Amino acid sequence: MSASATALSLKHIVKRYGSYVAVDGIDLDVGQGEFLTLLGPSGCGKTTTLRMIGGMERPDAGTIEIKGRRVDRLPSHKRDTATVFQSGALFPHMTVAENVAYGLKMRGVPNGEIGPRVTRMLDVVRMGDFAGRYPADMSGGQRQRVALARAMVVEPGILLFDEPMSALDLKLKLELRAEIRRLHEEMGFTAVFVTHDQGEAMTLSDRVAVLNKGRIEQIAPPVEVFERPASEFVYTFVGESCVLELGGRPLGEGARLGPVPAGRQRLYLRPHHLHVVEAEGQDNSIRATVTAVEYMGGGYRIHAETPAGNLFFDTSRAPVIGPDHILAIGWSSADATYFPAS
User: Do residues 246 and 335 both lie within one domain?
Assistant: First the structure.
């Protein structure tokens, strides 16, 4: 990524709260027009990192640059950023149009420009008919669209998203996710998006940075993070997984196992790679005892116990098996991932 194409650069960023290190030396470059997601569990440092970019927190060490300009010692209103918050954070006493216009007024945009820009942005987020309404008169999804319009109308260099969909129900979440994706494709803004929702990260992002304990474990396109995880943490956090503990223990009667890399005794498998073995010839298989069958809506999930650990997989057909049923579960060696025993 060339310097001219870099919209945001974080170098050796550290943030401490007393003896607790929330962000531990993060280095990160975001390209112009890129949609980058910070993904990780609670307490991993993703929100703190976002707040430092936006000026709501100050790093204890390191530098932050936006389009080549150092900003880590500037207050938030002097940075070229705008934030879409989890709650929307709309002013309840202002109409939709007044909320969207607020940032333009604070930035000294001439009055003659404000009205047309507000109208255009409300049309972009499909909220033009709501200009005169108040936040209390709208649904959660509508309020978040207005919050999105308010952030985008100032045309920031970096658009920050602080888990904007976490308070929405599933239907509204899917609608807003599609709307954000559409707007990014049409407008090409640069975005840093924080979430713990893997579906959001996978569908929205050009790249995903997976954080753990204040550090970036992996940063890559979504498909690479999922299919070629850089660490055991990334594998277990991104997507569903099963693990078999090998370590020389007996795997039971009739078990077959492909080559195991030296020094690696934890076998990880994605549930969608597992299936019931109907015939001989599978390069990997293990006998398992069914412990539960769950209806998942449109399919079933089979849980089973093996001498090396528990497995689960999904099937679209109603199973003719139940608890205590013995079956053989197989997988391809190409789908097996090994890590050293902890």
Answer: yes
